[in-house]
Design a protein that fits this description.
With 123 residues, this protein is mostly beta strands. The protein contains no helices and eleven strands.
Length: 123
């Protein structure tokens, strides 16, 4: 099993910034991708961004390109999501996810999930 613990969510005004963190513990894959998925009220889970094991490859949803930045520290088994220029439509619960292997966009193909952290952007 892998445990994921997110932190850093909160309430911010439109145009502001937040930084999310996700620490992984327990079983660790030799190679695993990490990512963020969000779910707004009444909507399905939406892929946001992911990063490869080495950090050399990333993939962003069009809706967050240029505003969000993902990074990871493998020594700490931690992934970060820097969110700038936040918009009200970014309001959602943000989930950290881990999967063995490469980046995928389909949310159903991630193996482990965190409990989620709420991000609320006020207009």
């Amino acid at each position: 099993q892998v445990q994921l613990v997110e932190s850093g969510g909160g309430l911010v005004q439109a145009g502001g910034s937040l930084r999310l963190s996700c620490a992984a513990s327990g079983r660790t894959f030799s190679r695993y991708a990490m990512g963020w998925v969000r779910q707004a009220p009444g909507k399905e889970r939406e892929f946001v961004v992911a990063i490869s094991w080495s950090g050399g490859r990333t993939y962003y949803a069009d809706s967050v390109k240029g505003r969000f930045t993902i990074s990871r520290d493998n020594a700490k088994n931690t992934v970060y999501l820097q969110m700038n220029s936040l918009k009200p439509e970014d309001t959602a619960v943000y989930y950290c996810a881990v999967r063995a292997g490469d980046i995928v966009v389909l949310t159903t193909q991630w193996d482990y999930w965190g409990q989620g952290t709420q991000v609320t952007v006020a207009s």
